Amino acid sequence: MQQSDLTPMLHYNRGMNEPDAEVPPAEDTLISRARAGDRDAFEQIFNSYRNQVYSLAYRMTGNPTDAEDLTQEVFMQVMRKIGSFQGRSSFSTWLYRVTVNRSRDYMRSRKRIPELLSDDHEAVERVGEPVGATPARAPESGAIASEARRLVQDALLELPETLRAPLVLHELEGLEYREVARMLRLPVGTVKSRIFRGRLKLAELLEPHKEQWR
Amino acid sequence: MDCRRVKKSLMEYADGGLPAGRRDEVSLHLEACTECSAMADRLALSGAALGSLAPVEMPPDTSARVFAAVTAGEETGRAAGFFRSPRVVAAAGLVTAVLVGLAIVVGLVTGGRDGEETTVTKRGVATQAVSAPAGESALQLEQKDALGEGVLPFASLVTPVARATSNNYDEASMKNMAESLEITESFANRYTLSDAINMRYAFIEKLADEFVAAGGDGPMLEAMISYVQQTEPVLLPCYAEKALFSSQPVYIVVLTGPPRSGATSQLTRAEFWAFNPEKFTANPELSLVWWGQSQK
Lengths: 214, 296
Hints:
CATH architecture of the largest domain in chain A: Orthogonal Bundle
Distance between the termini of chain A: 18 Å
Number of strands of chain A: 0
Number of domains of chain B: 3
Largest sheet of chain A: none
CATH superfamily of the largest domain in chain A: RNA polymerase sigma factor, region 2, helix turn helix motif
Number of helices of chain B: 13
Number of domains of chain A: 2
Strand order of the largest sheet of chain B: 3-4-5-6-7
Low-confidence stretches of chain A: 1-23, 112-142
Number of helices of chain A: 10
Structural class of chain A: mainly alpha
Radius of gyration of chain B: 26 Å
Mean pLDDT of chain B: 75
Strand content of chain A: under 5%
Shape of chain B: extended
Distance between the termini of chain B: 54 Å
Helix content of chain B: 40-55%
CATH class of the largest domain in chain A: Mainly Alpha
Oligomer: heterodimer
Helix content of chain A: 55-70%
Low-confidence stretches of chain B: 75-155
CATH topology of the largest domain in chain A: Rna Polymerase Sigma Factor, Chain: A
């Protein structure tokens, strides 16, 4: 499905051969420098990957404030643990994995703690606005498109986490099945099956509003 | 074409990704099969709905704020990321004020300043919080650290162990190892079911890191643990070994849990799983070469 608007470095990490992709800076050099405490290198890493982390966190939580909190936590963890990054998987994969795990922990914590402030629906609408029109996602203007996106995001949150994570990673973040499998430590067949079930469940939840996407 | 085969292609069909020949075959089936046809409609609906979502980017002002908070948090050795959440900080304001007030009273009495720390939230608001070790058990603090929240050194926990050995196990020696592995005893004495609930992800990561350091494949090990946890999610991993079993390569994973029956919630039961890593990716079930459990 649709590829998110991710950074050139991420495209590079996934081995995608896009003719117009920029040649990224040497990632291993950046990581080595960040590991040695180089703040500029860490900032470059942050700038390259912040949207990847934020986007996934937002899709997993449905809330921009939570996404912001999570992005902050993920990069703090990266800062602490970059020394133990072995390079056996791509940095991007590692980062996705940290984000998924932190999102899972975060949502679990949130379930135990009552909502402290009101919902951020207004802010969600702002985040949900397109940041760049692509041919496949020509933005529809106005409240209807915005409401439709809100419905989808709400439905995503109703999916159990075991279905939501693979669905978001594959369908929205554009990762291949085998990449999702590696990230979630699941067999590829299980990932495919969960995405299939997730799609059916999502449709079930959206059925009363299906005219929005006709 | 039967329903089973059609279902395998249905998502691609709904997304318009099937080659023409195959698409026609599926279409033909859908005309005659109401169940598959309804499923295709649902997949098309969810595909269209997901496709309507716009890409998400972090707003520039948020980006600057988050980066500042990340680096500030690192400099001050801040812990407990959850408490940096602005909503939690706001809601905790009253509690904090009471605690600060209490600390001031105690400080006036004792003259001490221990336990105070100044933190910077990501909103750039300096907040004075009181870390109150007296309010939390050592285990709770350790749990926070195990989750990467940096209150106490991870070394203060009984942590999982991974190693690579030249052992070539057979049935008898594997049973012997399962009965005599000391770390299962330590976990049984130290941890309970609630520890397993709270710390399992951190322990999986820790064990995988140790396994990589020992020369094993960390992601593969985590995949094996994930496979085991599909049927029983709350198990705390304590040991991994890269070895041989009847001369074939195996990764041995040991996880602890509470007994199947009985009153205790201590993790007195240990499960031993030995997988062939070369076969695991293709078929986890067929890669299992040995399984056993022990009860302390």
